[in-house]
């Protein structure tokens, strides 16, 4: 056995261990695009709120606001849902492409483990947001989104690139700060889901997409 | 000197597929037959024969169960198997060091 053969053997072992236990087919590009969708969504939301300044930006409860601004609240929810769906669809398409390149099954043991670990905190946070909306506690919706999204990233990071853990921690910290400054919710939302995703997406793209 | 090291290489891992199977089972608690097949990109028969060989060496154990009506076969590395894998890697490492000196 030549030295090169042994090196190859060791490299193949390392790659198979990684591919068998981690979903490494996430694409940095999907992070960048998700960040752009979020920023577009945030700007749209800003103009909608500006067009009717008596509502959610103020510290009035959503329940009070409900009466005179159903349309605004519904359109903000619609924006969030559209951004979420667009990001998920983009991530699926790009990961499928990447999985082919990295010779990893797209829907297999690793992607299932990744999804399960993400979905548990996300559904918990989602239910909490619905409960808070019912109670009319609008100011904590953005912090809850950021914190539970961060938790889902930390919990998923064992099944994909380890860097995702740090993104998760940043989202959690940002969410906690947002909870202290409830009137800047939209700004924190734009930073957490827009700016951080774009920065992280670029880093991941340069590091792993090649 | 070189020959002694080569003798230490585990015969069970001479085959690339077997070494790959062992790598997966060391990195994961359990792995099922179909996921292994997808990951290694080999045929049913090929994978089954290598799994049998590793089972014979007592490097892996088989867990058979049913998922609904479908049979679901999981594999797990034994202590003996993990030990052998580790030693095999150590030997490979030593071989590299040896060849760097000569």
- Biggest sheet of chain A: strands, sense, closure? none
Number-wise, the strands of chain B total: 3
Oligomer: heterodimer
Biggest beta-sheet profile of chain B: 3 strands, antiparallel
Estimated structural class of chain A: mainly alpha
SSE topology string of chain B: HHEHHEEH
Low-confidence stretches of chain A: 55-59
Q: From the coordinates shown, what is the CATH architecture of chain B?
A: Orthogonal Bundle
Between the first and last Cα atoms of chain B, what is the distance in angstroms?
11 Å
Q: What portion of the residues of chain A fall into strands of 2 or more residues?
A: under 5%
Task: Please provide a written account of the structure.
The complex is a heterodimer of chains A (210) and B (102). With 210 residues, chain A is mainly alpha-helical. Chain A has helices at 3-21, 28-50, 62-66, 70-101, 109-135, 141-156, 164-180, 185-208. Chain A has one domain. The longest helix of chain A is centred in the middle third of the chain and has 32 residues, at 70-101. Mean pLDDT of chain A is 89; it is low at 55-59. Chain B is α+β, with helices and mostly antiparallel strands and 102 residues long. Chain B has one domain: Winged helix-like DNA-binding domain superfamily/Winged helix DNA-binding domain (Arc Repressor Mutant, subunit A, Orthogonal Bundle). A three-stranded antiparallel β-sheet of chain B has the order 1-3-2. In chain B, strand 2 and strand 3 form a beta hairpin. In chain B, helix 1 runs antiparallel to helix 5 (79-101). Chain B starts with a helix and ends with a helix. The A-B interface holds A 1-3, 6-7, 9-10, 12-13, 16-21, 103-105, 108-109 and B 6, 16, 19-20, 23-24, 26-28, 31-32, 35, 38-41, 89, 92-93, 95-96, 99-100.
């Amino acid at each position: 056995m030549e030295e090169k053969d042994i090196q190859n053997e060791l490299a193949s072992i390392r790659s198979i261990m990684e591919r068998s236990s981690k979903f490494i087919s996430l694409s940095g590009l999907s992070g960048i695009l998700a960040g752009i969708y979020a920023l577009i969504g945030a700007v749209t939301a800003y103009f909608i709120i500006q067009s009717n300044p008596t509502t959610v930006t103020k510290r009035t409860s959503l329940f009070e606001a409900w009466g005179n601004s159903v349309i605004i609240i519904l359109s903000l929810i619609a924006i969030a849902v559209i951004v979420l769906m667009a990001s998920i669809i983009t991530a699926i398409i790009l990961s499928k492409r990447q999985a082919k390149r990295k010779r990893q099954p797209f829907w297999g043991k690793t992607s299932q483990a990744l999804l399960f670990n993400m979905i548990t905190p996300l559904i918990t946070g989602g239910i909490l947001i619905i409960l808070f909306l019912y109670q009319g506690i609008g100011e904590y919706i953005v912090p809850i989104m950021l914190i539970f999204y961060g938790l889902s990233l930390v919990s998923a990071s064992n099944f994909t690139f380890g860097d995702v853990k740090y993104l998760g921690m940043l989202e959690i910290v940002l969410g906690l700060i947002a909870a202290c400054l409830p009137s800047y919710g939209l700004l924190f939302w734009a930073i957490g889901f827009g700016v951080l995703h774009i920065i992280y997406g670029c880093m991941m793209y340069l590091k792993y997409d090649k | 000197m070189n020959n002694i090291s080569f003798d230490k290489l585990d015969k069970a891992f001479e085959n690339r597929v077997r070494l790959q199977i062992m790598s997966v089972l060391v990195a994961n608690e359990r792995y099922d037959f179909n996921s292994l097949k997808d990951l290694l990109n080999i045929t049913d028969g090929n994978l089954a024969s290598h799994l049998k060989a590793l089972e014979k060496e007592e490097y892996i154990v088989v867990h058979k169960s049913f998922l609904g009506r479908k049979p679901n076969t999981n594999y797990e590395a034994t202590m003996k198997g993990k030990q052998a894998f580790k030693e095999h890697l150590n030997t490979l490492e030593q071989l590299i060091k040896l060849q760097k000196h000569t």
